[in-house]
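Exercise 7.
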Amino acid sequence: MRKQAEQDSSLLSFSGPNLGYMMEMYDLYLEDPSSVDEELQQYFKENGSPYKSGNQKAEVNIEGTDYSKVIAAVQLADSIRAYGHLAADINPLHDKKKDTERIELETYGLTKADLEKIPVDILIENSTDEVTNGYEAIEYLKKMYTRTIAFEYAHVHDREEKKWLKNYIESGSLDASITDDKKKEILNRLVQVEGFENFVHKTFVGQKRFSIEGLDAMVPLLDEIIQSTVEKGARSINIGMAHRGRLNVLAHVLEKPYEMIFAEFQHSPSKDLIPSEGSIGITYGWTGDVKYHLGADRNLAKNEAKTRITLANNPSHLEVISPIVAGYTRAAQENRSEAGIPDIKTESSLAIMIHGDAAFPGQGVVAETLNMSQLRGYHTGGSIHVIANNMIGFTTESFDSRSTQYASDTAKGFEVPILHVNADDPEACLAAAIMASEYRATFSKDFVIDLIGYRRFGHNEMDEPMVTNPDMYTYIKNHDNVRKLYEDKLVGNKTLSAEEAQKMREDHMAHLQKAYDSVPKSDKERDISMEPPEDVTSSLHDFSTGVELDRLTAMNQDLLSYPEGFNVFKKLEKILQRRQDPFEKDGKVDWAHAETLAFGAILQDGTPIRLSGQDSQRGTFAHRHLVLHDEKTGEEYTPLHHIKDANASFCVYNSPLTEAAVVGFEYGYNVFSKETLVLWEAQYGDFANMAQVMFDQFVSSSRAKWGQKSGLVMLLPHGYEGQGPEHSSARMERFLTLAAENNWTVANLTSSAQYFHILRRQAAILKKEEVRPLIIMTPKSLLRHPLVSRGVEEFTEGGFRPLIEHPELGKETDQVERIVLSAGKVGIDLLERAEKEENNDWLHLVRIEEIYPFPMQEVREIFSRYPNLKEVVWVQEEPKNMGAWTFVEPRLLELAPEGVKVDYIGRRRRSSPAEGDPTVHKKEQERILEQSVVKGKE
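Solution. The predicted structure, written as tokens, is:
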């Protein structure tokens, strides 16, 4: 036909889609070399036909073959690989028409006879022995790509990954034989899954349970993932999932006793039902949560090694659990016991994320979490994602909930392989689990299993789905469940008898009944006070956190010493070397310097540190510089890795441009590594808005709901400097609204020493019962302000103070008429403005450093000193309906002596946090300061 005919006995160089493409390009090259790019011109000039190869494969004879048919056959094979899933048997309801056009012979102008002339190896690289010609190869590919398990990996660009995936599918690895005993084990698991749901449905009529029915195979699927991963050395497996099927997973994967679950349904005491041997861990807060939000821990013993399996507590913001379990997993993989970056072993822990089909494309935090999966600060060696796909979201069907073919399509943008599997084929589900585990072990990357089933009942068993989804539920009503289908299959092929199957069901029902009969009766006299334990309500004011001068001096020297030949940017080096001045001259320690010294002392005490945030290595305001870069080579150097006597790891990561997923990750990391000081920093404080669900549902309330402790630190830059509404406020009022039961500390600091001490205090309480999160409104302009910087002596003794009084005011106790209280940057502005006035005996300034818990006792003592006090004024930069005013007002009214007026000075109530015009801001700020500290300006 063309010059390729001269190569009919040459060795095969390309196969599959690559071969088809190269054959087409070679045809064009022969007709007009300039019609292909220069690289291909050079290749064909040197190598001739694409059939030539230097890899010494077996010869392929194509003499007499119509090359257009070869090209068409290759295109057909490639199309089966890329589009076979559209014709696959992956929908258990069979209510959608299959798209077979792209895989039909006629579409490519081919016949059986045409294909029989084409060698197998042109179409399949590693075919099985029974495939002897091109037609059989095409039929084999159709079989492999269109059954109850289907694949999408054309979007994976890495050649090695794509080759591995193709070979795994086409080599028959998915068809590993299953023993009869294994099949019986699978059936028994399905009996347990179905039996539990049926028992609860009949016993607790009308109660929400978010049944797994229609996705029953998810439990044996999880069993197989866990078993396969444990065999590869995992000692921690962390599961995050929504409500659907959660109780069943708790009962069977986590082995939460049926008795406990039944007790929760009938509101009976359940804590006494926790197994005494401690194989399962269930924690409680004092307020508790609904049963389908709760998590559990289970210790799985295998070959004398223990693996901890955790199902994370999760509220109704379901998908936000994904980054949290990723954080759990990263923490479990790292060894933080030595200086430097933590040593990580990704094979030691796995995250399994179970998603709803409407939520996977619908919730942005899913994409955020996928994006983090290969970043150095957040990767975990690959998560296995399972989409619990019941083809509906509450009452919304897929055509109204996504713009994509599949629920899983979001993962394509991150080159994650996707496997679709029919939930009515449990053996295919096990094959999917094994493939996912093998891929993750080989490439340390994410994998998605789209488990396609249905939902037997309405969203929460109290809904009537025929009202909104009659077509779908007509199919479901007439569809046997997977236990029945699989049982019929095994009985039909004589794997077990009908009598054996019936006994299996009866035995399990008897077990459920026995468990139910042992549950205590409903407790109608329950304790409704729900008070937090004493440790939670205890004060943190008695911590001594100073560090000896000699130790600070030596550490500071280490921090300013660099390896020989390391070239620090000259301008930056001069700035950093000024940090010698507080120890050699009369210099002051500024904010960033204080932070670094605090970190160093914490590391020397044996507490690991992890800090992340957008631009946190340098600091948004170019103040931190914890990671230095050689100006000639770009090499990184982290001084905190090289201080003497450091006994723990330190890492700081620039995070991706996301808040919700990163805060969730850091929270999860902290929960799983309670000994680590974990800090998240917002680029600007208002960026924390995007993570509000994490603060609301986890950080602020997890201990009260679930008994889940956290010592997470959040650094939120806050302060009004004329930068407009989006770069002024960290929305302090939101954190204060959520403040109760000592659930966290909210601070707005005005001293570098205060920052040093509060960080040291936070590190000291991490492993104590009184641990709680810490929210700090960090400064911007104050980072380098001389009044915020402090002498070394303030770092060597004492500890954090909940408030600071102006040292020069308030001395004439009988003359003070007004006490001005403030927090943060405005307190420094007030101090500077007051110093311009000649007679300030009438005035006293107090800066509240810890707004929550509010220092009631300390403020009461200050008020009691002044017999002629007329008014107490709260001054803030924020509008009246924002900031701390609405929080502190009732406390000041309670504390103020009788007859003393409590008043407010600041911006009026506004809908926007700040002015957009810097000139207007400056004038308004001047008004606030004058009204506050200039007598007669009230």
